[in-house]
Amino acid sequence: AALALAAPPASPLALLRTALLDPAALAGSYLPGMPEDVLKMAQEAMGGRWYRCPNGHPYYVDMCGRPTELLQCAECGQPIGGTDHNLLADNVDIGDVGDRLYQTTTVEDTSERGYCLRCAADESAANPYPTARKLGPLATRGSRLLLNAALAMSAAAR
Q1: Would 104 be classed as within a structural domain?
Q2: What residue stretches are annotated with the RZ-type domain (predicted)?
Q3: Whole-angstrom Cα distance, residue 103 to residue 132?
Q4: Cβ(59)–Cβ(80) under 8 Å?
Q5: Catalytic status, residue 64
Q6: In a domain, 144, yes or no
Q7: Is residue 107 part of a domain?
Q8: Which own/partner pairs from 77-81 qualify as long-range (CB within 8 Å, at least 24 positions apart)?
Q9: What pLDDT, in 10s, does the model give residues 3-26?
Q10: Which of the following is catalytic: 64, 73, 116, 119?
């Protein structure tokens, strides 16, 4: 706590000082260790083209980025894809890239702001080795520990 309180404003520890002294100021911020938008994370890792099935579930088309076969959505079973590089009429191109081949979808990051962790049991069941924003599992858990400790100390002091 002393390091966070003494940290200069430009230091990464300044976030912990804010969590200690004025946690409400962090409500609209992206906090370290919080979950990120899974679709954005997948798009950054895989690139390519992304579409949505008729029920809104995302799916990926590799190679040229345009569909060449009919499949079923893994989540709901609806028809996805298309033939001869033509998308099914009720499927949607994410990011509206157009009909050209070899175009890459750019997904908008819709990560939640503020403190958005589920309870520990749900969090562990959903992902036993959490990573967030290019942090590995150990760094993610460490940043969550420090943030939670600062918020707990702030609550105890009030």
Answers
A1: no
A2: 34-103
A3: 27
A4: yes
A5: yes
A6: yes
A7: no
A8: 78/53, 78/54, 79/53, 79/54, 80/51, 80/53
A9: 888 989 899 899 999 999 999 999
A10: 64
